[in-house]
Task: structure prediction
Amino acid sequence: MVHEVPTGTDELVADLVAAIGPDRVLVGGGARHLYGRDSSIIDGGHSGPVCFPDSTEQVADCIRAAVAHGRDFVPRGAGTGLSGGAVPCNDPVVIATTRMNQIHEVDVERRIAWVGPGVVNLDLTRHLAGTGLHFAPDPSSQQASTIGGNTANNSGGPHCLAYGVTSAHVAAVEVVLSDASTVVLGEEVGDAVGYDLRGAFVGGEGTLGIATRIAVRLTPDPPVVMTLLLDFKSIVDAAEAVTGIIAAGIVPAALEIMDQKVVQAVEKFVSAGYPLDAGAVLIVELDGLPAGVAREVEIVKRVGADNGVGTVRVAADNAERELIWKGRKNAFGAIAHIAPRYYLHDTVVPRTRLAEVIEKVNAAAERHDLIVMNVFHAGDGNLHPLLMFDPREPGTLERVHAAGEEIVRIAIEAGGVLSGEHGIGLEKRRFMSLLFSPDDLAAQRALRDAFDPLGRANPLKVFPTGASCGDVVGLTEIPEGVWV
Amino acid sequence: MNAMEDFRAEVGSSGPVCVKGGGTRWSLGGEANTNVRVVHAPGGIDSHDPAEMTVAVWAGTTLTILAEVLAEKRQEVVLDGPPGSTVGGSLSVGWNSIRRQRIGTARDSLLQAECVGADGRIFKAGGPTVKNASGYELCRLLVGSLGTLALTGRVILRTRPLPECSLWLRGTMSPVEVERSCYRPSSILWDGSNSHVCLEGYGADVESEAEGLAEHGMTEVAGPPDLPPDRDRWSGDLPQGAVLDVATGVVHRHGSTVAPEVDPAVKVIAHRLKANFDPQGRLNPGRDPYQMSA
Result:
């Protein structure tokens, strides 16, 4: 249902159309409904006009028009975000950067590429095929999510364990601020002098401005890659193995756990030969030079044995390696038959406490009579419990909410944090005060206000506030195709 | 009162104040104003959790002591500096190690900071875990800020495993050729006539790559070349006696250096930041991170 159009919209639309052309501005109810949400559980956002600029200047024009008419603006990439960061509150101008999808320049020698914010993550790596380089951040949404969105959310993914999250791969970024001025933050090579404004911008969830060109660092492909699949009797044993591998002094390229429910669902879908009777499987990827990788394979096997591993399967070739990953990366498409809806969480705990936290999370879900499934980035303690439910059952949503809040509290009590890679957005803003004191939040506010003193860039996100975001509600409907 | 409370009380909430670590790079970004009260952050290692690969440490701890403690568990942090440098001082300067290609940047290594703000109140930035997307990236702003936004008392840093083997080679191969011949070497330096490369990792891999480089005339040496104490951004020239860090574009050199020009649009944000964090300008007056040359 699209609500009434606020007054003054006609003049705003006229200015937007004059700036970027009639075919680049959508004002119909269908479009405003479509762009009223992202891939989070949050529904009911209210979008104003939706713009599709194709240049830095056009982004600036859209922002200028929005602010001149007293409207906020909300940047949007592919809309795959999971925390409601792109959900528009109170009829803002939505600025979608999907048309800015050019790979402007690839400098193989200097290992830098300048890209538009609308370039899809995987498209860049595909474009680099044959150069011996790739773009390291690999969120599970990488087939759809954009590098602009990855930058706004400081996205992770399985391989950020060894290679670092998006921030480590963004050298510089051209940004349009809420006063419509343009600024380049960072340097192609090395660190910029002065305050690390680039580092502050990455992960700003679209509240600091809009990235219009991004210089990303390219990573050399590793000479040797080995992928191992280990199965354990229980998820606790698998988690203990992860702690043991890190404690052994190695940093694998990836360490991913899937519990039995996920494995059984995924196996039906991809037939990767996952063991169906295992309590959990652990995917370990090791890469680098040959002797080191061989040594680390032996270390992983030994730590596995210490923790009661069943079998250790070492992928014999690329095809087998890809099959093992296919299961992991498509886990969320495979679980639909368990329950019609799921609520995906994202918290981080110290990796030495993974096992105990997972037990507590599973117990919490059980107490609320919910099925919980676990598939997550174990190597950096980044949990992703999925609460499965049928919203048609009376009282279910209340139980899902209650269990969700308990999971957040369990993570924080264990010395963890609210989010590892999905961000705060609208979804977790009410939990910020669990982790941060009013003084902590005031310092964060000082950062935000330095970029956006007008408070026009994607407001009402991140900070806890009593202010409402239209009719936003959570958990009424879950979109198809959600990634983690 | 714990050490953080003591530090907060020392900083207070009024009057200009500057923080001193080891004083090894004291005049970077401008001299501190005279007659400014000098405070010192607490020292000591709070806890090292090798299995978590993090260390909680007070900002006044020297890098030497921290390195010794971490080395007992075969770990290290990315920070480095002249003898006497402290954790807080090195973070405040924000310079990267020449081994950055292996161990990462100073800005990536700070997970959490407990600070005293200009209003004399304690705030925390970041979080204790190795991955965190909860709220704004305040920690990154603190690194390289020369203590102009807040004074850091205690931090949690990411640690890294020490390499099993570390080897420096020198020769006339060009830095570009060296980079092409090795897989992610820890460091490549250029002194105008020679490349210096640091290979680190497992012994057999290091030996194998070193053999490859030896075929191009690179020979093993005891360590990196002597690095002059000052830093500059590379502009295409390499003065006599200077050494270029190829990955970072930083020139290690002797003598006065010039701060690079900064886009006024960047300075606008920087001024607002300073005004929001320290409206009275009481923290480290006289220092300006934009007056650093690299």
Remarks:
- The longest helix of chain B spans residues 264-277.
